[in-house]
Amino acid sequence: MVIETRPEAEARVWAELAEIPDPEIPAISVVDLGVIGGVAFEDGRLRVQLLPTFVGCPAIDVMRQEITERLDALELADSVIVDVTFDPPWTSDRISERGRERLRRSGFAPPAPLPPGPVGLIGIEDLATLPVAECPYCGSSDTRLDNPFGPTLCRAIYHCSACRQPFEQFKRV
Amino acid sequence: MTTESVAPALDPGARDALAELVLSLADDEFIIGFWDSEWTGIAPMLEEDVATSSIAQDEIGHAKALYELLAELTDDDADRIAFGRSIADYRHAALLNHARGDWAFSAARRYLYETADAVRLTAVAASAHPGLAALAGKMRREETYHLLHADAWLRRLADGAEDGRRRFAESLRQLWPDAQQVFAPLGAGEGLDREGWLPKPMPELHAAWLERVRPVLEPITGELPAASPDAGGRTRRTDDFAWLHGEFTRVSGSEEGALW
């Protein structure tokens, strides 16, 4: 296996990936969502590591296809391979600052930071959705968790008592 | 999964032991996912419809990833393993042999399963097999939400009206012997231990689970009988499961190689 160092090509790959929206929350790109684990040129092939937000996320295949097509079109390598992996696991801390801002602007409360600890073995009690999330509309913390399960696997439903709006939070996981 | 990651060749004994463990995990998640998906559209309230459907989707997603890992190990096909086996070849715990029943029954089963699964997953997340350990670690983060949900329903039913409390307690008592079977000994028990696929032996996991759930359940159910996992705990099948098998293989059985 020959790993090639191609900083310019890699920068083009990252720039292209930054234009690919998350299929379920298009306001945020796959890069800002943190699902891209890394990119590398190996033996003439371009390999991209894709870290699913949830194991059963039905958008994985759509993402894989979109990434493959867009990167193929750059013609930087003989082929593009997207490796789906859980090592390292995606965690909600992987969402970038810009990603969190974009979530907020489209009506999603970003996930709260994770407590410190080894990623695979954080205590069950520490991981749960917080009873309170900051309302993305009015900024109030006077909110309550309505349902830890929402319209997709990664979203929980809250209600803001200050502006009386329901809103969703990207789950802390 | 396209991971061409490091897959050091395993000797057949070690591989078979790992495959048996992965199959038991996968079948548990697959079958509880299918039973719970039956509540979609008819759960007692909208929030529960969303929650139960979401949990079922998680479980079936976990099963898919586990079947893919198994397919890699045994040079098989994940869909073939999931949908192409006869009833006698499934290896889920006897707890998952029962039809969904009423809401209290499903809530009782979910509590028993989620607590047992949490104990088991914590062990599997430290498995000597890196792919399995990573997947279990990731699954565990999602299962946290299931555990919270199961716990919230336990408290709601136990502290609620008489009818719900009675149904819940009866369901727990009925399911108690079969719940032990999540920790049923696997044929490859020694191999699992030797290779470190399952870093803690089943009896130890079973004891940890009992210690955790007995004090929670007995105020609701009264004293629960002594019950142990047994060698047939993952091979006994029921008419309920035969019916479910007919349901979930209907599409794949209607046309060989169909994609959906």
Task: Give the arrangement of secondary structure elements.
The complex is a heterodimer of chains A (173) and B (260).
Chain A lengths: L2 E2 L2 H11 L12 H4 L2 E7 L2 E6 L9 H13 L6 E6 L12 H9 L2 E2 L14 H4 L15 E5 L7 E6 L5 E5 L3
Parallel strand pairs in A: 3-4, 5-8
Antiparallel strand pairs in A: 1-2, 2-3, 6-7, 7-8
Chain B lengths: L11 H26 L8 H29 L3 H6 L19 H22 L5 H29 L3 H18 L9 H7 L6 H20 L17 H10 L1 H5 L6
Helix pairs in contact in B: 1-2, 1-7, 2-5, 4-5, 4-6, 4-8
Indicate the low-confidence ranges of chain B by residue numbers: 1-6
* Mean pLDDT figure of chain A: 89
The geometry of chain A reads as: elongated
User: SSE order of chain B in H/E notation?
Assistant: HHHHHHHHHH
The CATH C-level class name of the largest domain in chain A: Alpha Beta
CATH homologous superfamily designation of the largest domain in chain A: Fe-S cluster assembly (FSCA)
Reading the helices and strands of chain A in chain order gives EHHEEHEHEHEEE
Task: Summarize the amount of helix of chain A as a percent range.
Answer: 10-25%
Q: Number of helical runs of chain B?
A: 10
Structure description:
The complex is a heterodimer of chains A (173) and B (260). By secondary structure, chain A is an alpha/beta fold. Chain A has two domains: 3-84, GMP Synthetase, Chain A, domain 3; 109-170, no CATH class. Chain A contains five helices and eight strands. Chain A has helices at 7-17, 30-33, 60-72, 97-105, 124-127, and strands spanning 3-4, 36-42, 45-50, 79-84, 108-109, 143-147, 155-160, 166-170. In chain A, the strands form two sheets. Chain A has a four-stranded mixed beta sheet with strand order 1-2-3-4. Chain A has a four-stranded mixed beta sheet with strand order 5-8-7-6. In chain A, strand 6 (143-147) and strand 7 (155-160) form a beta hairpin. Chain A is elongated, with a radius of gyration of 18 Å. Chain B has 260 residues and is mostly helical. Chain B has one domain (12-221, 232-254): Ferritin, core subunit, four-helix bundle (Ferritin). Chain B has helices at 12-37, 46-74, 78-83, 103-124, 130-158, 162-179, 189-195, 202-221, 239-248, 250-254. In chain B, helix 2 runs antiparallel to helix 5 (130-158). The interface between A and B is large, with 33 and 39 residues.
